[in-house]
């Protein structure tokens, strides 16, 4: 009887082990597939790897092109000498092309065009360059892309920590009725964002918390942790999570922690972690430091 019982227990243990192995293997494959999509998105035309410049505009006329006589100098090996001028006046921003300049919008030659119409931004094209207007506070800038940027052509992927399901942590969502989170970006601009709530969870026996921004349905976190000193990007990382379930629980999967755009290019304007989200523990999961750009 004892032999049969021992054999049954051994068989049961093997079955449980195989199920756990398949479960861990499935989870690991899901994370790998998710991360591959994340990498491919960085490499697209709208990704972060092809940023080639960030130029703040002044009121009045701002000439652009590869010649040093321009107000704003595009990469001279990528741009004709003089492309035209961007005019900032009374809250309007327009582009006037220099006669004969090969500047296009949606594959059609441009003479004069409004760069801030309602809806989607206007993206102008010249050879491998693309540019459009961004706004930060009351300031406007040209965001320049180069489809053959060395940051893109030299990209070889992002190193990550080994995928570990233990870093998928259940957290308790505590809603806020009215709270603003103060966030400063790398340009020094500080702004307030609404927070739907905070998450409380435990790492290595220590209770910690993160304040969310975004919506209650889709939570976003800008966080710092002790791994930023050596293993991960010094300016912190990002993490997204679905909103709380009916019991007020949220799953935080730190295997999906990502570097901010500033880890890949000096031309982004990333937010830095707010004081509420500077953790006293090390999160050894997700993306590692990239190429020591910063």
TrEMBL record:
<dbReference type="InterPro" id="IPR012467">
    <property type="entry name" value="DUF1684"/>
</dbReference>
<dbReference type="Pfam" id="PF07920">
    <property type="entry name" value="DUF1684"/>
</dbReference>
<protein>
    <recommendedName>
        <fullName>DUF1684 domain-containing protein</fullName>
    </recommendedName>
</protein>
<keyword id="KW-0732">Signal</keyword>
<feature type="signal peptide">
    <location>
        <begin position="1"/>
        <end position="22"/>
    </location>
</feature>
